[in-house]
Each structure stands twice: as C-alpha cells, then as structure tokens.
Amino acid sequence: MRHKIGYKKLNRTSEHRKALIKNMLNSLIKYEQLTTTLPKAKVLKPQADKIITLGKKNNLQNSRTLVSKLQDIKSANKVKKTLAKRYESRKGGYTRIVKAGYRYGDNAPLAIIEFVDRDVEAKRVDKKKDIKKNPEEKKTVPA
User: Fold this and answer.
1) What's the burial of 10, exposed, middle or buried (CB within 10 Å: 0-12/13-18/19+)?
2) Which domain does 21 fall in, by range?
3) What's the confidence (pLDDT) of residue 105?
4) For residue 17, how many other CB atoms are within 10 A of its CB?
5) Residue 129: inside a domain, yes or no?
6) Residue 136, pLDDT score
7) What angle do CA 115, 88, 38 make, to 5 degrees?
8) Are 122 and 32 in contact, with CB atoms under 8 Å apart?
C-alpha cells in the first residue's frame, strides 16, 4: 500500500528536487521537447499538465501563480499566450512521454517528454541562423 507517499524523491533533497522540476518545466515550455531520464519525465508530466491548466484560466491569480511556480516571466507569457490557445479545446493530456532507449554511460533509461501538438521550430530558439554569403563576395586578405 502506498499510504502517505505523495511524490518521487529522485534521490535528492527537497530544495534540489524543486529546483530541478522548475528548471525542467522552463526548458520544456521553451523548447517544447526535452530528453531526460524516465523517472524525471514521469515526475515532470503531471507538473507540466497542471501549468498548462493554470494558463488556460485567464485571471490575475493564475498569472501570478504561474510566475511564482516558473520564476520566469517569458515562460509564463508563453504558457498564457501560445500554449493555452493551442490546447483550448483539449481537456487534459498535454504532454507525452516516449521511451528513448538507454544512456551510454550508466545505462539509465532515457525518455523524451514533449507537448502533444508541439511546434517543431521551437527546438531552434537559441541556435544562431547561418548567414548565407554571396559567392561573389570574397574577403581580401591584406598582405
């Protein structure tokens, strides 16, 4: 029986666990896909679903709760403006977990957690775009 066992400890202190979940939530919201270990993904899934549900109810209290839980205004705005509109008609199950084999170093089970109807371009948020150079433009090297 699982009496009085409310969450997975993930072999961490409570402060470390809370910071880990908060950082993973922010990354999941920013990139809309995250590769992590299977136990971490299973802990993250209900938290992410609760965050999306909070963002769908548009009032001041929920906005403040979002900023408080995420500690990031950009992520909170993305939840309210983008993700809440995307999942307006869906009543739950905003994320999915896909098993992705085992990690090379320690054979830990890996998983990909992602939003159901994710934006594929969100993975490239931080990557710099390649500047296409004209073939006619040649740099001259001073001798």
Assistant:
1) middle
2) 14-118
3) 92
4) 17
5) no
6) 59
7) 20
8) yes
Calculate the average pLDDT of the chain. 89
Residue from 66, 70, 75, 20 nearest 43 by CA: 20
Residue 31 lies in a domain: yes
Residue 133 lies in a domain: no
Residues 6+ apart with CB under 8 A from 107: none
pLDDT digits (tens, 9 = 90+) for 113-142: 999 988 888 887 777 766 665 655 555 666
Bigger pLDDT: 134 vs 37 = 37
- Is residue 76 domain-resident? yes
The domain total for the chain is 1
Residue 100 has pLDDT above 90, yes or no: yes
Could you tell me the pLDDT band of residue 81, with boundaries at 50, 70 and 90?
A: very high
pTM of the model: 0.82
The first and second tokens of residue 31, run together, are 């990139």
CATH of the domain at 91: 3.90.1030.10
